[in-house]
């Protein structure tokens, strides 16, 4: 059981404190309720660009890194389609340094053409390196556009097109910041060797005077139910043919999400999973194959992807996957296999919760989803799943009319 306290400042900033006296460290985690799904379709990649801009200095603190290093700290950040997260870890006695740094860039990020140009170049190079010039780098651009027709999950966090970042203006950046990076749209978690009273005082001191901002209310077009088989073929200079299949699944807070996660474990959870046993070891059709899901706040995707052994026909590989999916749709999973994937999931959750950094991040995400206490109740949801639920959800998920398939052929 993860114990925590929760309170809210007058400006709307939600604060969660998790005390852990077993560590000399503390983590300050700031989660902003903004991701790539909140972008204008004609101006994408902004949330990810901001992940970089937020390290470019604020009005009062030109250099973010040096004072943090002097305090024995380290920091990082990440952006997804659903959220943006910044976190600092440092010795607990220096926690106020983290409050100073994070509050100042929330209050007064430095907007300059120079900073924007530097970070624009960094993001553009990242776009080219990982998505345009890397083998299979464009696969998920194509898959998202195949699977999503209305929802903004149809573009990647990095952005839909390189030109959107190349053409970003300083005024665009300022508007995005003041719309989303406000206390009313943020969650602050402090975890480690701290006391709630101390954190309440520091939160009021450093964040209390920041203007609340207007609460951002999402009006995202939801994706219609898919009613047809979708397929796409591409050719590129890649080493091996690759096969990608994805299926629409439940959103992060629905019961179907938990069932789908166990299904991904049955199909692709390591060397003893069904797909690996049948298609890599036995039939030798794939050199590697995996099954996972996007874990999205809104309705996400369950994905199967693999690289084919040279000489294997794409149609044969696809048929072999379909045969495995028919098995999981035809017969209820036996209790032994179900218990195995539940135990594996429980171990993964418990292992993840071992680090104070992960606990802080998880509390922030669960609070964003609606209740930080979900951290203490989720394991029970997995444990309660039945073989009948697995069978029913498999039949819904792997309906051919819910399928999106990309044949990625090698020119070599």
Order of strands, main sheet, comes to 1-2-6-3-5-4
Question: Looking at the structure, what is the overall shape?
Answer: globular
| Low-confidence runs | none
Q: Helix share of residues?
A: 40-55%
Total number of strands: 11
The percent range for strand residues is: 15-25%
CATH architectural grouping of the largest domain: 2-Layer Sandwich
Give your account of this protein's structure.
This protein has helices spanning 46-53, 65-70, 95-108, 113-132, 139-147, 162-166, 170-180, 196-207, 255-268, 274-282, 314-330, 335-352, 356-369, 374-383, 387-397; strands spanning 5-8, 14-19, 25-32, 74-79, 84-91, 186-192, 230-236, 242-248, 286-293, 301-308, 403-410. It has 15 helices and eleven strands. The mean pLDDT is 95. Helix 3 runs parallel beside helix 8 (196-207), helix 9 (255-268) crosses helix 15 (387-397) and helix 11 packs antiparallel against helix 15 (387-397). It has two domains: 5-207, Metalloenzyme, LuxS/M16 peptidase-like (Cytochrome Bc1 Complex, Chain A, domain 1, 2-Layer Sandwich); 230-410, Metalloenzyme, LuxS/M16 peptidase-like (Cytochrome Bc1 Complex, Chain A, domain 1, 2-Layer Sandwich). A hairpin with a 7-residue loop joins strand 9 (286-293) and strand 10 (301-308). The protein is an alpha+beta fold and 412 residues long. The strands form two sheets. It has a six-stranded mixed β-sheet, sandwiched between helices.
